[in-house]
Specification:
Elements lengths: L22 E12 L2 E12 L3 E5 L6 H9 L6 E6 L2 E2 L5 H6 L2 E4 L11 H7 L10 H8 L1 H4 L11 H9 L1 H4 L4 E5 L7 H16 L3 E5 L3 H7 L2 E6 L2 E6 L6 H8 L16
Parallel strand pairs: 3-8, 3-9, 6-7, 7-8
Antiparallel strand pairs: 1-2, 1-4, 4-5, 9-10
The structure holds adenosine-5'-diphosphate and magnesium ion (MG).
């Protein structure tokens, strides 16, 4: 995302929060996995501050593992994970969250037996003093505002996903990792979610987006990374990617099917 220019063409001042580093998140030579199962193999990834980066690849490629490693839910066995220029490889997930990272995991991450309002309050971290988060979430997803007393579990899948996504507004993160947040949702709902994500990105929040809707992901992304078998196989701008080959051959159309073929960079 580019920053605003004033009429004289000068760049508007950056918000103080992004002053310290031009790189929000960096993985360098990272290996990670589950017990003896190695998944990520020598992964290098640079996410510039304020950018929207797509991470695409077939099922089992290691995308979720990468996001979990970045958020600190998995510890890398080798390599360096850093946020805003500082290594965070040894810090716990809650410490990384306090530094501004927020993972929206696969599936609907809501408490079904709690109301919408209770879920939103639960999303506010204990260290977060800001009290406007609920208002921001409702502004992003107005439908939730009409359902504050409704049990989350009684809402549609799309409404539950918007509630899960609200964390990215409530907790005021600086980096949001999104794991297939449009999975299984109607196109109209996906549109609404992407509109909200565009606004979030425009406000300066850095996004790392794992998506099955390839063309939607590419339409919002400044940079795209392809992953296969635990390795990054392509990293560059969406324009440099052979999108037809990607969509038809690699991910089986939109949304992605289970079968994956080869992907080519131009
Ligand atoms: N909890 C786990 N324990 C062991 N292996 C896992 C676990 N979760 C995922 N895997 C394996 O790690 C590999 C990468 O999975 P994942 O990161 O979920 O891929 P993706 O998100 O790209 O579909 C797969 O081979 C998967 O079977
Ligand atoms: Mg996954």
């Amino acid at each position: 995302m580019t920053r605003m220019h004033d009429p004289l063409g000068r760049m508007a001042p950056k918000p103080a929060a992004v002053e310290e580093s031009g790189v929000a998140l960096e993985l360098s030579g990272v290996f990670s996995g589950y017990g003896d199962t190695a998944v990520l193999r020598d992964v290098d990834l640079v996410i510039p501050t304020g950018s929207v980066v797509a991470l695409l690849g077939p099922n089992g490629a290691g995308k979720t593992t990468l996001l979990r490693t970045a958020a600190g839910l998995l510890r890398q066995s080798a390599g360096v994970v850093s946020m805003f220029g500082s290594s965070v490889g040894r810090t716990a997930p809650h410490e990384r969250a306090a530094r501004g990272i927020c993972l929206i995991p696969e599936g609907r991450g809501v408490f079904p037996g709690l109301t919408v309002a209770e879920n939103l309050r639960m999303q506010r971290p204990t260290w977060c003093r800001d009290k406007d988060g609920l208002d921001r979430a409702i502004e992003a997803f107005p439908d939730l505002g009409h359902r504050m007393d409704q049990l989350a579990g009684s809402m549609s899948g799309g409404q539950q996903q918007m509630l899960a996504l609200s964390r990215a507004w409530v907790a005021q993160p600086r980096i949001v990792l999104l794991d297939e947040v449009s999975m299984g949702l109607a196109p109209r709902v996906v549109d609404e979610i992407f509109t909200a994500l565009r606004r979030l990105a425009a406000s300066g929040v850095t996004l790392l987006l794992v998506e099955q809707y390839v063309s939607r992901a590419l339409s919002i992304a400044d940079q795209v990374n392809l992953m296969d078998k635990g390795e990054i196989s392509f990293s560059g701008s969406p324009q440099d990617l052979d999108q037809d080959a990607l969509v038809s051959g690699y991910l089986g159309g939109e949304p992605a099917g289970p079968d994956a073929g080869a992907v080519r960079a131009r």
